[in-house]
Specification:
The radius of gyration is 14 Å and the shape is globular. The chain has a single domain (6-106), classed as HIT-like (HIT family, subunit A). The chain has a five-stranded antiparallel β-sheet, with helices on one face. It has helices spanning 6-11, 59-76, 90-93; strands at residues 19-22, 26-30, 38-44, 83-86, 102-106. By secondary structure, the protein is an alpha+beta fold. The structure holds guanosine-5'-monophosphate and zinc ion. Guanosine-5'-monophosphate binds at residues 6, 15, 17, 29-33, 41, 88, 94-97. The site of guanosine-5'-monophosphate has 14 residues, from strand 2.
Length: 115
């Protein structure tokens, strides 16, 4: 937990969010600036800086995050047409919030490769 981390503050309920799915270990909520019709962020409740900071101790948590992302896609009704799971890491990866998060994106055709 970090006092000034934006997503830790969302986990603590200090900043409101629009939740899609919640479990003991993770939270999924709508991105405030959606880049696609479905744009949901899946985050661990525990603070981890990024995927680069994950360790083997996080193995089960990382699996849970991927399964939660697939559940979000089901709930959003985009499981059949397709969707994307992305985590941005560090400066070159375009990470702007330093708390591990995965973007669930869908509801439109997504370009590849990213810019
Ligand atoms: P990143 O750029 O680090 O991969 O993704 C951070 C995401 O967090 C961005 O898509 C941004 O729109 C989203 N975001 C930033 N601040 C807030 C907020 O206060 N609430 C929500 N729901 N999303 C946020
Ligand atoms: Zn945090």
């Amino acid at each position: 937990m970090s006092d000034d981390c934006l997503f830790c503050r969302i986990v603590r309920g200090e900043i409101p969010s629009d939740p899609v799915l919640e479990t003991d270990e993770l939270l999924a909520f709508r991105d405030i600036d959606p880049k696609a019709p479905t744009h949901v962020l899946v985050i661990p409740r525990a603070h981890i800086d990024s995927l680069s900071a994950a360790t083997p101790d996080h193995r089960a948590l990382l699996g849970s995050i991927q399964l939660a992302a697939a559940e979000v896609a089901r709930r959003e009704g985009i499981q059949d047409r397709g969707w994307r799971l992305v985590t941005n890491v560090g400066r070159d990866g375009g990470q702007s919030v330093g708390h591990l998060h995965y973007h669930v994106l869908g509801g439109r055709a997504l370009g590849w490769p990213p810019g």
